[in-house]
Design a protein that fits this description.
There is one protein chain. This protein has helices spanning 21-30, 47-56, 88-98, 101-114, 120-125, 136-145, 152-158, 175-184, 201-213, 228-241, 274-277; strands spanning 6-7, 35-36, 60-61, 64-71, 74-81, 188-191, 218-223, 244-248. It contains 11 helices and 8 strands. The protein is of the alpha/beta class. The protein binds adenosine monophosphate and manganese (II) ion (3 copies). Adenosine monophosphate binds at residues 16, 41, 68, 135-137, 152-153, 156, 252.
Length: 283
């Protein structure tokens, strides 16, 4: 078991979290995190602030992001770690990936209006910290605030997901492009929370195989969205595909996230932690 308290996945107001990078750093440090990464969706605008705040709290830091990818008609998330935050290639790729979120949000609001929930676009915008990053999470917060649902998990059961009102299919980056932006910027690409995708065994095999082919390096084994059985399952997958292993809470908000920063079991034995491979990239 790896003993370092590394938390390499969470979100700030720069994407769909509710805390600032500075508030997250303070919370991570208070929870005993030793190596931290802020991984906002499709955005690295918070990286310099997060690195400075980590330093102020005596934590080590890896640059991070979580890129939205479309693979086999499903949305997959690829975490990038330890890249140069000033890379023009990565910045352009992320900016292209963010493009289209606004029109998608407008369509989501139109669908919600059609089922009797007006004002969702303006309502979601009130929760948005970054105008380029309006996400389903912001709509979920609006639907809770408006009293339509009790909490955000109820929202994602009844709205905003496939087959439900407010779901707008969207084409994100390709797997190959996302991995290339990250590796081209000197970082490592990691498959986020693999158990969350609705893939058949063949599709999952294709995801891991193609990810390796494109230069992908790691997989999240211990994440806030995996069960203990899923830690074991994806530890096996990491060994099978020769991938290094990552650990991260995927913390978004004190009120919403069930796993807090730094509050996860260690990696199972026999795995290479991503942070060992990234040792020379730690700030
Ligand atoms: P988007 O990038 O706009 O499609 O929004 C995706 C975000 O919605 C994820 O990063 C999560 O924060 C949130 N989300 C998606 N599904 C769920 C769920 N079932 N429960 C809670 N949050 C979810
Ligand atoms: Mn999110
Ligand atoms: Mn994700
Ligand atoms: Mn995430």
């Amino acid at each position: 078991m790896s003993i370092l308290n590394a938390d390499l996945h969470c979100h700030s107001v720069v994407s769909d979290g509710t805390l600032t990078p500075e508030q997250l750093a303070e919370r991570a440090a208070a929870n005993g995190v030793e190596l931290w990464s802020l991984t906002d969706h499709d955005e690295i605008g918070g990286q310099h602030r997060a690195a400075a705040a980590a330093r102020a709290h005596g934590m080590r830091y890896l640059t991070g992001t979580e890129i939205s990818v479309t693979f086999s008609a499903e949305t997959v998330h690829i975490v990038g770690l330890g890249f140069d935050p000033d890379s023009a290639l990565l910045r352009r790729g992320l900016s292209d990936t963010r493009g289209g979120r606004r029109e998608r949000a407008q369509e989501m609001a139109d669908q919600l209006a059609a089922v009797g929930i007006p004002g969702a676009y303006e309502g979601a915008l009130k929760h948005v910290g970054n105008p380029e990053l309006i996400s389903r999470t912001h709509f979920a917060r609006f639907l809770v605030e408006a009293g339509v649902c009790r909490d955000t998990s109820e929202v994602f059961r009844k709205y905003l997901t496939e087959g439900n009102p407010g779901y707008v299919p969207h084409r994100w980056a390709s797997l190959k492009a996302a991995v290339q932006w990250i590796t081209g910027a000197g970082g490592l690409a990691v498959i986020a929370h693999p158990a969350r995708y609705k893939f058949t065994a063949n599709e999952e095999f294709a995801l891991f195989s193609e990810f390796k082919t494109h230069g992908g390096f790691g997989v999240e084994v211990v994440t806030g969205s995996h069960t203990a059985a899923e830690y074991v399952r994806y530890a096996d997958t990491a060994r099978e595909f020769g991938l290094s292993a990552s650990r991260g809470s995927d913390f978004h908000s004190p009120g919403e996230s069930h796993t807090d920063l730094g509050q996860l079991p260690g990696l199972p034995g026999g795995l290479t932690p991503v942070w060992d491979v990234l040792a020379d990239r730690i700030l």
